[in-house]
Structure to design on (883 residues):
């Protein structure tokens, strides 16, 4: 994890998410495309259906109009008794008809029937009748939309249906003007989609009726009639528009449906896209959750194992391994590791025990050595005393020497009562005070309660030896050595204090390095033994001030006799 | 790991909620609009209302149309504006009787947060968000062109114009005079100002024609004035001698155009004004901005006796349905 490489978690989550997002993206893109295509197809179908309905109603209207024309032709060929009355009734029934006009061969207006409107005296231009058209369309035609120009102050927009009649000499053509607004009922309110609409145009692209005709006439809206008039019947997607065109059965007009791709796509797709986005988010969230779960199940135990190993690395002695649960592979790993930990800890304990044993053996061997020089000097002193007849003193000296050796040996025990150790020190001092007559005095301050606890044998003697040789020996005045044994909490402190020349820091350090001494056992040896037997918390500390004296403190636990 | 995933999820959720917001369409209460104009009776204004109604249904607007009895009553207009402010209108589509005397009320409306769109006749206010109408100077020049395209050897002009306070009349006259000024045939221009009323205009025109018998070009600068002047020419039977130029498409003028009394009609597009007025007000409420100093120009057409039945003229003169 310290390296910047990806962790198992990340790889798992990233790859799962990438796969899901990829698949989702492709699926959504594919779906949207298909959906869009089907939307447009639906819109086209919808448009065609609507337009064909409109077409059939307008067709119905026009065939109705044809019947009307035939009726009028019949009336003209075989007039009823009261023609005026006939037309009046007819116009009352057919409110969509603005006027019926009748023309002679040359196109002169013969008659005009209209409800409540009189033909103006001078007609500047009759927009309802175009004689030249009849040369081309001998069977009549349907005009483009135009204004009715026959009446004074009344100008409705109409389309004119003209048919030939064969009624006597004069009346050759009959024309019916149909109000454009009347057609509105077939066109207005026809919706295709939300904003789509339809309109009616003639085959030349003139708009016959448009729901927003006045807007177009006022140049506020445009309808691309040039384009539309070139379209065949059917549905056409042009740019953002869908045009659905159907020509009427009579062939004169076309119904055009206009709807907006944009509207269909954006409105419907937006809604779908929103739902899809929500679904996608849910799926991605689920993926994330699942991959979290996976990684937790798979990698969490591995992490635990890793941190357990790291801990073991730092502190192998006190490590307590708690088995990690997880998938089988991890459990195998875990139990292997547990086994390994146990094995290593056992091995370490064994190694340490062997090491201690080795040291103890080594030290015991050292203790066994007694400095022959010391023995020689002492025996020399005794012989000298005997020569001088100081028998009593010689006895004391021999006793002290015997005591010294007896305690040194102590039946091979390493730990002896403090009482014995104090005795050992006293014996040593007795011998040395003879050797260094009048050079120093000594005294013991012993807490009686401490005497029954155990201590390493030959603990005090090397320290006292050090005090005599390095503290007192260089002194001009008589020195003093004080040995104190006292209790402090759970520990016992043994202090050897002299008022000798003292030591520098370097000298103190040297003492802890030196393994031997004149009498055979050095302070380092004492310190090592203390630590081996009682632990690192115990041992020797040396406080010394040059020219004032040295204090050596031995700390050891209150160890009871077993 | 967790810390990195959480913001991602939040971002996705945020994006989703945003697309959700974008999906909502603008709906709710329809905007409340007032259309305050100069009259409610003439063909011109009826056509404006027809256009406004078309836009009203297209944009789902709550529209109230108000106009005074006479085309001089700016005080009534001011009162309508105050009524609109009290009523909490969102927008006013306004045509000013007085360029100056309607200004304060419009300023008040603008500072009340109402979007003011001016159609047809301007008002002296900075609070207007859009101006729509005929380029009146240009329309005046079209009048002049119609007068000058005749074969008259010498031209004496009579003008019947509305009150000098009304901005569009002044601009038309200005354009008319500018159009005439280059031509050496123009001898004299007589102007008479009357309230916008057909009968008063007829009397004034009659007076003018009788007082200056040499007048051979006569112009009426809005619909009632055009009707009045045309009727005066008709009753004095001066149709053959006097070139009558009329504004707008009152049926009387259309009849007299056919008869020959009126020589040319200057046809504005009132339907477009009404429609665009409401449309621009709505767009402005939707946050769109317009340059109020640039007129949104509606088409103006000159129609003579010869061209009156072309399909374009039919579309310009005769409203559909």
């Amino acid at each position: 994890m310290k390296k910047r490489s990806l962790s198992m978690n990340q790889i798992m989550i990233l790859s799962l998410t990438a796969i899901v997002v990829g698949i989702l993206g492709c699926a959504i893109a594919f779906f949207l495309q298909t959906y869009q295509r089907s939307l447009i197809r639906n819109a086209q179908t919808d448009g065609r259906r609507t337009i064909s309905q409109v077409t059939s109603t307008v067709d119905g209207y026009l065939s109705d109009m044809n019947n009307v024309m035939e009726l009028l032709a019949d009336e003209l060929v075989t007039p009823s008794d009261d023609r005026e009355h006939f037309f009046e009734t007819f116009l009352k029934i057919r409110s969509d008809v603005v006027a019926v006009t009748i023309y002679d061969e040359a196109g002169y207006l013969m008659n005009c029937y209209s409800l409540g409107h009189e033909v103006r005296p001078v007609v500047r231009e009759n927009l309802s009748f175009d004689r030249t058209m009849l040369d081309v369309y001998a069977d009549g035609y349907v005009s483009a939309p135009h204004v009715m120009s026959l009446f004074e102050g009344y100008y409705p927009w109409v389309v004119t249906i003209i048919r030939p009649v064969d009624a006597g000499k004069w009346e050759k053509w009959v024309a019916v003007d149909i109000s454009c607004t009347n057609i509105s009922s077939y066109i207005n309110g026809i919706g295709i989609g939300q904003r789509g609409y339809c309109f009616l145009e003639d085959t030349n692209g003139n708009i016959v009726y448009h729901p927003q005709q006045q807007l177009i006439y006022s140049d506020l809206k445009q309808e691309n009639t040039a384009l539309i008039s070139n379209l065949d019947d059917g549905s056409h997607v042009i740019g953002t528009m869908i045009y659905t065109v159907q020509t009427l059965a009579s062939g004169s007009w076309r119904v055009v449906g206009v709807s907006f791709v944009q509207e269909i796509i954006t409105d419907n797709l937006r809604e779908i896209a929103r739902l899809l986005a929500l679904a996608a988010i849910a799926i991605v969230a689920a993926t994330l959750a699942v991959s979290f779960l996976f990684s937790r199940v798979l990698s969490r135990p591995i992490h635990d194992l890793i941190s357990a190993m790291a801990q073991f690395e730092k502190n192998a002695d006190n490590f307590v391994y708690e088995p990690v649960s997880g998938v089988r592979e991890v459990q195998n790993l875990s139990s292997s590791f547990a086994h390994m930990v146990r094995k290593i800890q056992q091995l370490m304990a064994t190694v340490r025990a062997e090491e201690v044993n080795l040291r103890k053996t080594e030290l015991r061997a050292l203790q066994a050595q007694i400095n022959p020089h010391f023995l020689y000097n002492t025996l020399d002193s005794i012989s000298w005393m005997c020569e001088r007849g100081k028998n009593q003193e010689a006895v004391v000296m021999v006793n002290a020497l015997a005591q010294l050796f007896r305690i040194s040996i102590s039946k091979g025990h390493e730990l002896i009562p403090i009482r014995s150790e104090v005795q050992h020190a006293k014996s040593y001092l007795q011998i040395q005070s003879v050797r260094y007559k009048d050079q120093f005095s000594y005294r013991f301050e012993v807490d009686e309660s401490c005497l029954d606890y155990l201590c390493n044998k030959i603990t005090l003697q090397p320290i006292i030896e050090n005090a005599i040789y390095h503290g007192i020996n260089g002194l001009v005045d008589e020195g003093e050595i004080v040995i104190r044994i006292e209790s402090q909490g759970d520990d016992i402190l043994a202090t050897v204090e002299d008022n000798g020349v003292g030591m520098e820091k370097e000298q103190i350090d040297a003492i802890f390095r030196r393994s031997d001494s004149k009498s055979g056992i050095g302070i380092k040896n004492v310190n090592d033994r203390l630590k081996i037997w009682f632990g690192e918390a115990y041992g020797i500390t040396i406080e010394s001030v040059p020219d004032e004296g040295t204090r050596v403190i031995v700390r050891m636990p209150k160890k009871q006799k077993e | 790991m967790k810390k990195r995933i959480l913001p991602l999820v939040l971002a996705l959720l945020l994006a989703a909620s945003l697309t959700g917001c974008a999906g909502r369409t603008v709906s709710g209460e329809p905007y409340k609009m007032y259309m305050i104009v100069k009259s409610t009776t003439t063909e011109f204004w009826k056509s404006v209302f027809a256009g406004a109604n078309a836009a009203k249904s297209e944009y789902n607007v709550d529209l109230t149309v108000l106009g005074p009895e006479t085309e001089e009553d700016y005080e009534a207009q001011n009162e309508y504006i105050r009524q609109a402010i009290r009523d909490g209108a969102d927008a006013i589509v306004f045509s000013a009787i007085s360029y100056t005397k309607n200004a304060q009320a419009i300023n008040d409306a603008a500072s009340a947060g109402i979007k003011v769109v001016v159609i047809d006749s301007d008002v002296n206010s900075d609070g207007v968000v859009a101006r729509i109408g005929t380029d009146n100077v240009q329309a005046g020049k079209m009048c002049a062109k119609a007068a000058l395209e005749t074969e008259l050897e010498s031209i004496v002009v009579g003008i019947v114009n509305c009150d000098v306070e009304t901005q569009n009349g002044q601009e038309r006259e200005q354009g008319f005079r500018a159009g005439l000024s280059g031509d050496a045939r123009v001898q004299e221009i007589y102007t008479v100002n009357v309230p916008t009323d057909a009968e008063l205009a007829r009397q004034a025109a009659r007076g003018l024609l009788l007082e200056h018998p040499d007048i051979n070009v006569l112009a009426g600068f809005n619909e009632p004035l055009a009707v009045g002047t045309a009727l005066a020419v008709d009753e004095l039977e001066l149709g053959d001698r006097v070139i009558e130029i009329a504004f707008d498409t009152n049926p009387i003028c259309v009849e007299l155009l056919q008869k020959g009394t009126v020589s040319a009609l200057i046809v504005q597009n009132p339907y477009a004004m009404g429609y665009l007025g409401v449309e621009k007000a709505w767009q402005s409420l939707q946050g769109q901005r317009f340059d109020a100093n640039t007129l949104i120009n509606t088409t103006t057409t000159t129609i003579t006796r010869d061209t009156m039945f072309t399909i374009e003229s039919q579309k310009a003169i005769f409203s559909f349905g």
